[in-house]
Amino acid sequence: MSDEQLKLEAHEYAERIWEDAVKDIASLVAIRSVEDMDHAEPGKPYGPAPFEALQKAVDIAARMGMDAHNCEGRIGYAADRHDRPHRHRARGHGLELRPL
Description:
Elements: H1 3-29, H2 48-63, E1 66-71, E2 75-80
Antiparallel strand pairs: 1-2
Helix pairs in contact: 1-2
Protein backbone atom coordinates (compact mmCIF):
# COMPACT_ATOMS: atom_id res chain seq x y z
CA MET A 1 0.00 0.00 0.00
CA SER A 2 1.37 3.39 -0.92
CA ASP A 3 1.79 6.18 1.61
CA GLU A 4 -0.90 8.20 -0.15
CA GLN A 5 -3.37 5.31 0.01
CA LEU A 6 -2.58 4.78 3.69
CA LYS A 7 -3.14 8.50 4.39
CA LEU A 8 -6.44 8.41 2.51
CA GLU A 9 -7.65 5.35 4.44
CA ALA A 10 -6.59 6.92 7.75
CA HIS A 11 -8.44 10.13 6.91
CA GLU A 12 -11.57 8.22 5.89
CA TYR A 13 -11.43 6.18 9.09
CA ALA A 14 -11.04 9.31 11.21
CA GLU A 15 -14.05 10.86 9.48
CA ARG A 16 -16.16 7.74 10.15
CA ILE A 17 -15.36 7.49 13.86
CA TRP A 18 -14.99 11.19 14.69
CA GLU A 19 -18.28 11.64 16.54
CA ASP A 20 -17.79 8.48 18.62
CA ALA A 21 -14.20 9.45 19.41
CA VAL A 22 -15.30 12.87 20.65
CA LYS A 23 -18.02 11.26 22.82
CA ASP A 24 -15.51 8.75 24.21
CA ILE A 25 -13.02 11.48 25.07
CA ALA A 26 -15.77 13.57 26.68
CA SER A 27 -16.86 10.59 28.79
CA LEU A 28 -13.28 10.11 30.00
CA VAL A 29 -12.48 13.72 30.83
CA ALA A 30 -15.80 14.03 32.68
CA ILE A 31 -14.38 11.70 35.34
CA ARG A 32 -12.39 13.61 37.94
CA SER A 33 -9.69 10.96 38.18
CA VAL A 34 -7.81 12.14 41.24
CA GLU A 35 -5.97 9.78 43.55
CA ASP A 36 -7.96 9.19 46.74
CA MET A 37 -5.93 6.90 48.96
CA ASP A 38 -8.44 7.27 51.82
CA HIS A 39 -10.90 5.28 49.71
CA ALA A 40 -8.44 2.88 48.08
CA GLU A 41 -9.32 -0.79 48.28
CA PRO A 42 -8.31 -4.02 46.57
CA GLY A 43 -8.93 -3.63 42.85
CA LYS A 44 -9.15 0.17 43.24
CA PRO A 45 -5.66 0.97 44.54
CA TYR A 46 -5.88 4.69 43.70
CA GLY A 47 -9.49 5.17 44.80
CA PRO A 48 -12.85 5.01 43.06
CA ALA A 49 -12.52 7.79 40.45
CA PRO A 50 -9.23 6.58 38.91
CA PHE A 51 -10.75 3.09 38.78
CA GLU A 52 -13.84 4.46 37.03
CA ALA A 53 -11.70 6.24 34.43
CA LEU A 54 -9.54 3.16 33.86
CA GLN A 55 -12.56 0.90 33.50
CA LYS A 56 -14.23 3.37 31.11
CA ALA A 57 -11.13 3.29 28.89
CA VAL A 58 -11.04 -0.52 28.98
CA ASP A 59 -14.76 -0.63 28.10
CA ILE A 60 -14.22 1.73 25.15
CA ALA A 61 -11.37 -0.42 23.84
CA ALA A 62 -13.49 -3.58 24.21
CA ARG A 63 -16.38 -1.91 22.38
CA MET A 64 -13.96 -1.14 19.55
CA GLY A 65 -13.29 -4.87 19.23
CA MET A 66 -10.01 -4.97 21.11
CA ASP A 67 -8.96 -7.56 23.68
CA ALA A 68 -9.03 -5.18 26.66
CA HIS A 69 -7.96 -5.83 30.24
CA ASN A 70 -8.06 -4.03 33.58
CA CYS A 71 -5.15 -5.32 35.67
CA GLU A 72 -6.32 -5.03 39.26
CA GLY A 73 -7.15 -1.34 38.81
CA ARG A 74 -3.51 -0.40 38.35
CA ILE A 75 -3.17 -0.42 34.57
CA GLY A 76 -5.23 -1.35 31.56
CA TYR A 77 -4.20 -2.46 28.12
CA ALA A 78 -5.84 -3.42 24.86
CA ALA A 79 -4.61 -5.36 21.87
CA ASP A 80 -6.11 -5.81 18.45
CA ARG A 81 -7.85 -9.18 18.20
CA HIS A 82 -6.98 -9.51 14.52
CA ASP A 83 -3.70 -10.66 13.08
CA ARG A 84 -3.14 -7.71 10.76
CA PRO A 85 -0.07 -5.74 9.81
CA HIS A 86 0.88 -3.17 12.45
CA ARG A 87 -0.03 -0.15 10.33
CA HIS A 88 -3.68 -1.24 10.43
CA ARG A 89 -3.79 -1.43 14.20
CA ALA A 90 -3.99 2.32 14.76
CA ARG A 91 -7.77 2.09 15.05
CA GLY A 92 -8.33 4.08 18.19
CA HIS A 93 -6.96 6.92 20.18
CA GLY A 94 -3.86 6.59 22.33
CA LEU A 95 -4.64 7.13 25.98
CA GLU A 96 -2.75 7.08 29.20
CA LEU A 97 -4.69 7.60 32.41
CA ARG A 98 -2.85 8.37 35.61
CA PRO A 99 -4.26 9.57 38.89
CA LEU A 100 -3.13 13.08 39.81
